[in-house]
Write a structure and sequence with these properties.
heteroheptamer, A mainly alpha, B mainly alpha, C mainly alpha, D mainly alpha, E mainly alpha, F mainly alpha, G mainly alpha, D: mainly alpha, 4 helices, G: Ribosomal Protein S8, Chain: A, domain 1, 60% helix, binds sodium ion
């Protein structure tokens, strides 16, 4: 069976989803999604192992060779992303049961798990596939289920948030398909590696490449919420059910970034990509995003919204790293992909616990909460420190690499800007710490610590954001391999 | 309601069986041209939606209930993905149907037929379901 | 026929594509009514279908289906792609519409402007 | 000759679009939308001939069906959804 | 050859009527009168073009049959859609622009029906 | 006991202490006993390292290697040895004093106070033993954050405002400048280890070296070189034991300690002398000395006057290091110790006056010397040390600094020292004069008119620190030996 | 279930299938049979299998009517085209209600649709024996009231009792 791992990775959640519909019971649906996501995680680890030991895995649907058949092609880069997505998926499933039972109407819970599994399918599919159009299909599977998941939020604003995301997301996906269509006209293929090979022979003007790349970039930027195309994100993250927010924040945008890496480095290649001038634009937008979003985050009263803006800023870091076009920079971007997924997951899971017990994640409702929920807030602090980039947390590792990439490129001011924006992160994290730890509770209430079934996944993530801040062999090692491969131009 | 709209009702009545059959035709002949399942699903769903529009949602649900549709959608997905899995057990890649019959040509045909059936079922039930919720909520 | 070259397949298509793109995009951005935005979105997506239709003859790839007495299509790929894109488009529209219905239920309006006011009140 | 027909259809589509934009009532727009749909079907059919791709006829048929269903659906939707009749009839919101 | 010429004539005629109908859409004063023009495009214009295509199929075959289906479909659904539209407009309170002072009764023949 | 274990214990003992304090928080006597035992144990543990270090050994402990070239590790060198001795030794006295002060003033949140205090000490020792800049940076930040609750201890609006200024300035400068400088150093030298003779020689040159030095100096906000001194007066909202911690035991000492370490082990004195890009530092620190003294002259609030005195005294250390001669470097090291003993005495005295007489202003101190003879005698000894007169420690350190300035013909430095000595005398001698030779004014609204000496623990503490100030003058051998060893390596 | 109508519908559908299919292999023909059965079954469930929904009784007589109607459509279209192209848009729209003599609901629908298919007149509402018609010219309105078309529709259905 090990030969079929790439397709099983995507197929298992897809097959599991209908069972949730047919069986209809919320606990059974939860059990299905938990088992499925654990299996997915195991498979992703096996795939990573295979890739690291045997090199690139190529799997052709139906046995037809490229470019006709759809290929699942897994190298270090996407093996790594598969691990991230499925790990977060497993943690979130483990965590979600109580939170979902509380936040979602009873008769819709089985639909929630169905949509969740479909979303997982889409994200894993996007990552695993080697066909650019197939990627679009998976993108839409994940997007559609995401819209559904967001709309399940309790507040009625979840509906408008979902609608807003639907409009922006669809625009993004359509831009992507247009860009892809232009590439297809030039090359006649949709296979990513094939595209790379054939683009080299196309003697089109720079204009045509720019046009195609522009469409692809704008489309993907919408999906990954690159400033200033992030407008859908704050509402979506704020009003979605807590579990969904945690899942989306740590997977959806990450996968979109991965796709962008593929487009930039695998399809176009560093040289052509650099020639188009797009990297400079991305760098500027990334830096603007880091500052604007962090600044806005400081003024948020709703913590989910605060973290949402922080995500926009963090995406800025990732894109900044990529825009350096150097091994160090791209490594920084890729490792931050992983690191940010972990820390944001921890943070949103912590907020999920607060939501579960307090019923609100507004700062004004959290005075002195650390006394009542020490473990939850402890994990929040760990995540927050990581967000700031404090040494011994994952956030430090990526920021260190990022700054080094800037220094390497002789861009001292950029390095300084990275640090200054970390200060903004410090301000918004500190606001929470001060309120949670140093303010007296407004009213006497009998808020208890969150249940263990939520705390354990939360602390797995919090622990991971410390562990991988100290032991960087795995994350950095793989990220560097991936970056070398992408920047080195070997598809 | 239905008695007051004879023009629409009669038009729908005459067309309904033909639309349904056309849907099935597209479904079965899908393997001669790609994408049959989807088109068939759309056509089939359109006929149900038309029926619900001209008669009523209640009437449409009597013909096919939401629960039945949800289960059909699920079966559709299972058919689609499950067929591919079968090929594993013959040591072939996912979606490789050469294994499904004695000779590869027929194997592929059966495979595609079943897959398209899955797609058609899913598309049909998903579209109809969405319409049901949409129309059911709108008053 | 040379005078009419501008409408020969390969050129006039692109003008339509561009026009539809612009029109759809404009409607999505400028319209305040949620349904109209969806209509705009659909028009925008339609431009993609046209784009893919107009490249029907780009390459001479053959269908990966084994022949059995009947001919294979010259290049079925765009065909498949369009259909897929249409499925996605329809699914998106349907989901969008059901969201609009629920928004109407929750807020009593589907105008952007009114929604913003209502949200400001509650938040 | 196919091309002449194509041009005619495109011109008609453009004129229909003008009406759709002018309105003034929602029904004018639906009417031209429906006409636009029919013209699209014909265009697909003619285009199929032009390109030697008769399989486009299937698409045309499906499109015709959807066009019809969509028109009925939209009419039903808008009639139900306009508690204030004058507003709908004036079409354009201020 | 004759079929060809006939086909061209149908195509041109269809094209012409499609355009004329579209012009009618623009010129006519209200949604009720415009629906006449729309019907013209939907049925006659479209029908002529499809007829023209039918003559190009070169014999009785599947393509011809599908074109017939399209034709049938258009002819059956167009009046229904048109009716649904006009009825909806009327029910919504739209007032048709009518010529005033017309007395259909006066010019009526003996055995004719009476307008209510 | 192995030396590795001693190093580890130096950090672990206060942390374990903090945990025990948390556990025993409900029983004040037990809690305070834990504090005392911990501080004594720590001091004894630190003492075990002194012998080997004096014998020329440099015990090392590598804790974590995050990635190649970036480690969390410790290495005890003479300067760090001296600093750790000061910090752990003064902690004992400060604990004694704290018990008297906190109980005497009925302060709230005492458990939190002792916990944070212990953590701050742990951070200080970690900082003192750091073998590289990154480790140092981490403990530097831990120190900042662990002292925040101490500074904002009173919890009223004023305290929170002051604490925020404290945190804001220290963190901002450390992240924006210090961390940036560290990253730059790493990018240039490929290592962050403290090495005899520095690591930057040949890597960064000319004006860039000056710029880097500037980033370090202003990044080390704890050294309070103007204009980043604002946090120090702002932190005067803290209770007196905390002020003592800030001014004498840990915080500002960490600042100047870091400055000396960076100049000696990162830049290398020779390297800086050769490149002549450190000249500006003499002026900047000189200006700070004079300006802060003049501000101190105008302060009526006793603690504020002491605060500005600290700013001025810290710049002595910076100036001494900036003179860039071995002798002045010895002076710098000695001045860290001398100022520690002197200033803690002065703060203890201020707190003692507050506890016993509830007086905070200089103008209220007329005749107080007769009511609180021990306190005011100790105060006088501290003041003499600040001015640099025998028989106090301040004389010795100042002597070395002057020698350095003379030997390098640095007349600017010399002039600054002479002028500032006059100014120091100008703001300290009037206090002593008023305390002993002016008559107390009769004030009817003063309910605390009748008071005697402060509580016993305070008296014990203050006597001990004053004695240390004198003892260091009489027996400067150990301190001198350590300081010389530090320089010995650099030559 | 109306067995006669079900069977006839099945047969008609199967012919439809046979023509559409093009590939007359046993497999596809079997599929066709299944498809027709499913369609009839659903149609039955939808309750569309009555004389309105499956008007097989009209098959022969309606064809001459179609030819006649075709002629009318052509005439009316040219008339409307002339009106639309003339610089002065000479229209005189009228709308009126009338009672039809047709007794059968299906006939009424055929009549109403025929009116709509020929330009210049459209049916706005048809309910029971009452018809509301919009005409672009007074003359067209008067033609309707002349009842020529109505009689022809009545003829199609002559002799059949529903
Ligand atoms: Na008519
Ligand atoms: Na008509």
């Amino acid at each position: 069976m090990s030969a079929h791992l790439p397709v099983l990775q995507v197929l298992i959640p897809l097959l599991a989803a209908p069972f949730c519909v047919v069986l209809r019971h919320r606990d059974i649906a939860w059990a299905i999604s938990l088992i499925t996501s654990l299996v997915c995680f195991a498979i992703s680890l096996m795939i990573l192992d295979q890739v690291l030991t045997q090199g690139v895995i190529s799997y052709f649907m139906g046995g037809w060779p490229a470019p006709w058949g759809i290929e699942f092609r897994i190298d270090v880069v996407n093996a790594y992303v598969l691990v991230i997505v499925s790990a977060i998926g497993a943690i979130v499933s483990l965590y979600g049961r109580h939170s979902i039972n509380k936040e979602i109407p009873r008769n819709q819970i089985y639909l929630f798990y169905t949509a969740y599994l479909l979303c997982l399918t889409g994200l894993l599919g996007m990552t695993a596939t080697g066909d650019a159009f197939n990627l679009f299909v998976f993108l839409e599977i994940s997007s559609l289920s995401t819209y559904a998941l967001i709309s399940l939020g309790k507040n009625r604003r979840a509906l408008t948030a979902s609608y807003q995301y639907l409009i922006m997301g669809t625009l993004g996906a359509t831009f992507y398909v247009i860009g892809l269509g232009l590439l297809y006209m030039m090359t006649g293929t949709l296979n990513i590696v094939d595209l790379h090979n054939k683009l080299a022979d196309v003697d089109g003007s720079l204009r045509t490449f720019q046009a195609a790349l522009a469409f692809l970039t704008v489309g993907l930027s919408l999906k990954l919420a690159l400033f200033p195309l992030h407008l859908w994100l704050p509402n979506a993250y704020t009003y979605a059910p807590s579990t969904v927010t945690a899942f989306l924040a740590s997977t959806a945008t990450k996968v979109a970034v991965y796709v962008m890496l593929r487009v930039f480095f695998t399809i176009f290649g560093v040289d052509l990509f650099e020639e188009t001038g797009v990297p400079n634009i991305i760098m500027i937008l990334a830096i603007c995003g880091m500052f604007v979003a962090s600044t806005v985050a400081i003024f948020q009263e709703n913590l989910k919204r605060m973290l949402a803006y922080s995500s926009v800023a963090q995406i800025g870091y990732i894109m900044l790293g990529i825009s350096f076009l150097s091994v160090t920079g791209v490594s920084a971007g890729i490792v931050h992909l992983f690191n940010h997924a972990i820390m944001k997951c921890a943070l949103f899971l912590a907020l999920g616990c607060v939501m579960y017990r307090v019923g609100s994640v507004k700062l004004s409702d959290m005075h002195g909460i650390a006394k009542k929920m020490p473990w939850t807030m402890g994990a929040f602090v760990v995540g927050g420190l990581s967000l700031i980039g404090v040494p011994l947390t994952v956030g430090f590792v990526s920021k260190w690499y990022l700054i080094n990439a800037a220094m390497e490129a002789d861009m001292m001011p950029v390095a300084a800007l990275i640090l200054l924006s970390s200060l903004l992160a410090l301000v918004y994290v500190w606001r929470v710490i001060e309120v949670a730890y140093f303010r007296a509770p407004k009213t006497e209430s009998n808020i208890k610590e969150a249940p263990l079934s939520m705390l354990i996944p939360l602390w797995i993530m919090a622990g991971a954001s410390i562990y991988f801040g100290i032991d960087t062999d795995m994350t950095l090692g793989v990220a560097e391999l991936a970056a070398e491969m992408l920047v080195g131009g070997t598809p | 309601m239905m008695d007051r709209k004879p023009i629409l009702r009669v038009t729908a009545k005459i067309f309904m069986p033909f639309i349904l059959l056309f849907g099935l035709y597209v479904q079965i002949h899908g393997d001669f041209g790609p994408g049959g399942g989807f088109q068939a699903g759309v056509i089939f769903a359109s006929s149900f939606i038309l029926y619900a529009l001209i008669y009523s949602l209640h009437d449409a649900k009597l013909v096919l209930s939401s629960v039945a549709l949800e289960i059909m959608a699920a079966i559709g997905v299972l058919l689609f993905a499950g067929t591919g899995v079968v090929s594993f057990f013959y040591g072939e890649n996912f979606l490789n149907y050469n294994a499904l019959a004695h000779d590869p040509i027929h194997g592929q045909h059966y495979g595609i037929l079943i897959i398209e059936l899955g797609v058609g079922l899913t598309v049909f039930s998903a579209m109809t379901l969405i319409f049901y919720t949409f129309a059911g909520r709108g008053r | 026929m040379e005078a009419l070259d501008f409408i020969s397949p390969g050129l006039y298509n692109y003008w339509i594509v561009i026009f539809l793109m612009m029109a759809g995009f404009y409607i999505v951005i400028a319209r305040g009514n949620l349904v109209k935005k969806l209509v705009g979105l659909n028009i925008f997506q339609t431009s993609v279908f046209l784009l893919y239709i107009s490249m029907g003859k780009v390459q001479d790839a053959t269908a990966p289906i084994l022949g059995e007495g009947f001919d294979t299509f010259s290049n079925p790929l765009p065909h498949v792609l369009i259909l897929t894109a249409i499925v996605v488009g329809i699914a998106t529209t349907a989901l969008g519409l059901s969201l609009v219905v629920r928004i109407r239920e929750a807020y009593g309006t589907i105008e952007d402007k009114d929604l913003l006011e209502l949200e400001d009140e509650t938040s | 000759m196919f091309i002449a027909a194509t041009i005619a259809i495109l011109i008609a589509m453009a004129l229909g679009l003008v009406r759709a934009l002018l309105g003034p009532t929602i029904y004018d727009r639906i009417l031209s939308g429906n006409m636009f749909g029919t013209l699209t079907i014909i265009l697909i059919a003619v285009h199929g001939f032009l390109e030697g791709r008769p399989e486009f006829l299937d698409i045309a048929l499906v499109y015709a069906l959807i066009n019809f269903v969509a028109t009925i659906a939209v009419l039903k939707y808008f009639r139900i959804k306009s508690p204030d009749k004058n507003e709908t009839l004036q079409g354009e919101e201020p | 050859m004759i079929l060809d010429v006939l086909s061209w004539i149908f195509l041109l005629l269809g094209g012409a009527f499609v355009i004329i109908g579209a012009i009618g859409m623009l010129r006519l004063p209200d949604v009720f009168s415009r629906s006449h023009a729309a019907g013209m495009v939907d049925t006659f214009g479209a029908g002529m073009i499809v007829l023209g295509l039918m003559l190009q199929t070169g014999g009785i075959n599947l393509i011809l049959f599908k074109l017939v289906l399209i034709l049938f479909f258009i002819f059956f659904t167009s009046p229904a859609a048109n009716y649904a539209l006009v009825r909806a407009a009327l029910a919504d309170g739209a007032k048709p622009i009518l010529k005033e002072g017309v007395d259909l009764q006066s010019s009526e023949k003996e055995e004719g029906a009476k307008p209510l | 006991m192995s030396m590795e274990l001693s190093i580890l214990l130096s950090i672990l003992i206060p942390i374990i202490g903090a945990l025990l304090i948390a556990v025993t928080g409900k029983i004040p006597n037990l809690r305070e006993s834990v504090t005392m035992i911990t501080s004594v144990a720590l001091f004894l543990n630190v003492l075990t390292l002194l012998g080997p270090v004096l014998d020329g050994e440099r015990p090392e402990l590598q804790l974590i290697e995050m990635f190649p070239g970036l480690t969390i590790g410790f290495k005890v060198e003479p300067l760090g040895m001296m600093f750790s001795l000061i910090a752990s030794g003064l902690w004992i006295l400060n604990s004694i004093y704290s018990i008297g002060y906190m109980r005497g003033n009925n302060e709230k949140h005492q458990t939190r106070f002792y916990i944070c205090f212990a953590i701050a000490i742990a951070a200080t020792l970690g900082l003192a033993y750091s073998s590289n800049l990154l480790t140092l940076f981490i403990f530097y930040e831990v120190l900042t954050f662990s002292t925040y609750p101490l500074v904002s201890h009173k919890g009223d609006e004023n305290a929170v405002k002051g604490a925020r200024t404290y945190l804001g300035i220290l963190v901002t400068t450390s992240v924006a400048f210090l961390f940036f400088a560290i990253a730059w150093t790493y990018a240039a030298a490929g290592t962050l280890d403290f090495v005899d003779g520095g690591i930057l020689g040949g890597n960064v040159e000319g004006p860039m070296l000056g710029l880097l030095l500037m980033l370090f100096i202003y990044g080390i906000g704890k050294a309070a070189v103007m204009p980043v001194h604002r946090w120090l007066p702002a932190a005067m909202v803290a209770p007196t034991p905390v002020s003592a911690l800030l001014h004498a035991v840990a915080v500002v000492k960490s600042g100047v300690f870091t400055v000396v370490k960076v100049i000696v082990y990162t830049f290398g004195i020779d390297n800086l002398v050769n490149s002549a890009s450190a000249g500006w530092l003499v002026y900047v620190s000189g200006f700070t000395i004079i300006a802060a003294s003049m501000v101190a002259l105008r302060q009526d609030n006793l603690k504020r006057r002491l605060a500005y005195s600290t700013i001025s005294q810290l710049s002595y250390v910076v100036l001494a290091a900036a003179i860039l001669t071995p002798i002045s470097a010895i002076g710098a090291a000695l001045h860290i110790a001398a100022h520690a003993f002197g200033k803690i005495t002065l703060f203890f005295a201020a707190g003692s006056i507050y506890t016993a007489a509830h007086k905070t202003e200089v103008s209220q101190l007329n005749g107080i010397g007769w009511k609180m003879p021990i306190t005011m005698t100790a105060f006088s000894i501290g003041a003499l040390s600040m001015i640099g007169l025998p028989p106090t420690a301040g004389f010795i350190s100042k002597w070395y600094i002057i020698q350095g300035a003379v030997s390098s013909d640095n007349f600017v430095a010399l002039a600054v020292i002479v002028l500032s000595t006059l100014l120091n005398a100008g703001y300290f001698l009037p206090i002593i004069y008023a305390a002993f030779f002016k008559k107390e004014e009769d004030r009817k609204d003063d309910h605390h008119g009748d008071h005697g000496e402060a509580p016993l623990p305070i008296v014990i503490a203050i006597t001990s620190t004053a004695s240390l100030t004198v003892l260091m003058f009489l027996f400067p051998d150990v301190a001198l030996e350590l300081a010389q060893q530090m320089i010995g390596g650099a030559q | 279930m109306n067995l006669r109508r079900s069977v006839t519908l099945w047969i008609i559908l199967y012919i439809f299938w046979y023509i559409l299919s093009g590939y007359h292999t046993p497999l596809l023909l079997t599929f066709g049979a299944i498809a027709c059965t499913i369609s009839v079954w659903i149609a039955h469930r939808m309750d569309v299998l009555d004389q309105e929904g499956n008007p097989i009784h009209l098959t022969l007589k309606i064809i001459p009517y179609w030819f006649w109607l075709g002629g009318e459509i052509i005439k009316a279209n040219f008339e409307l085209a002339k009106m639309l192209l003339s610089p002065k848009l000479e229209i005189s729209p009228v709308m009126f209600k009338m009672k039809t003599e047709l007794t059968n609901e299906l006939d009424r629908v055929i009549y109403a649709n025929s009116l709509t298919l020929t330009p210049i007149t459209i049916t706005v509402e048809q309910e029971g024996d009452e018809l509301e018609v919009h005409a672009l010219t007074v003359k067209a309105a008067q033609d309707i009231l002349g009842r020529d078309m109505e009689r022809r529709v009545k003829n199609i259905n002559d002799g059949w009792e529903g």
